Amino acid sequence: MKRVLILGAAGRDFHNFNVIFRDNPAYHVIAFTATQIPDIAGRRYPAELAGSLYPEGIPIFEEKDLESLVPNTKLKRSFFPTATFPTRT
Fold first, then answer.
1. CA 33 and chain centroid, separation
2. Which residues on adjacent β-strands are paired with residue 32?
3. DSSP annotation of 20
4. Residue 50 contacts residue 23 (beta carbons within 8 Å)
5. How far apart are alpha carbons 27 and 2 in whole angstroms?
6. What is the dihedral of CA 34, 56, 26, 7, to 10 degrees?
7. How far apart are CA 32 and CA 88, in angstroms?
8. d(Cα 52, Cα 17) in Å, to the nearest integer?
9. How confident is the model at residue 69 (pLDDT cuts 50, 70, 90)?
């Protein structure tokens, strides 16, 4: 099982979780990081939406805590949805 951190906690990030990771036993999403929505850090992505592999939901951490979060979680992968990254046209 690959332990994954999703960089972001907004609509596209949650959508990608539901499409790729929800109910997928090959992955375990350890957390989302809060990057866009004010005051979302400290909350959890609800268990009702996260699926049967996440009966407690999925925690959402401040992005600024990323440096300390990674070593403590045995993280194997990170997932960075491009919708959370500003682009220039």
1. 6
2. 6, 60
3. I
4. no
5. 5
6. 0
7. 25
8. 13
9. confident
